[in-house]
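ligand=zinc ion
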Amino acid sequence: MSSRLARELTGVPPEVQSRLERAGLRRTLATRAVLGLFLTRPRSRLTHAQAQAALTARGLDLNRVTLYRLLDRLAVCGVLRREADEQRIWRFSLAPTGDTLAETDGAGPRFECDTCHRRFELSDAGEPTRAVTRDLFEALARLGHQGRRLDVSIHGTCASCVTPNDLAEGIA
Ligand SMILES: [Zn+2]
């Protein structure tokens, strides 16, 4: 085991730990390594293949089927979130815990980078955005529907993925 992997096995948040325990998931080396992958990059949304490549890069050669099962089990017990992306490929990310819940459940607009698939919350949405939200809920109410939640999701390229060429085109 590399020293980097060893470092990442520490620091599992208590809430994640208790979810693992409730689900009866043993903290094997593989479980801790997969957790470490997501805990060190809380915004990342990884496919099975990306998770496997990242683990291999960290010196852990996990059987493909074992990793598939492990990711699914972590999703079932609520440690990871499993969502299909726009290409209908399953992506895994860290499920929100008490610390991050307020941030991710804020119903604010979200931005997703189509290149690296990280998500960013745009928490400082202004009054016009809130007005649009009210408008939409009122339109629903006039039709007798009860709107509860609005997800605004913007797709594009994040600051780390955008190339200088794209920037120049954007300005031109
Ligand atoms: Zn990106």
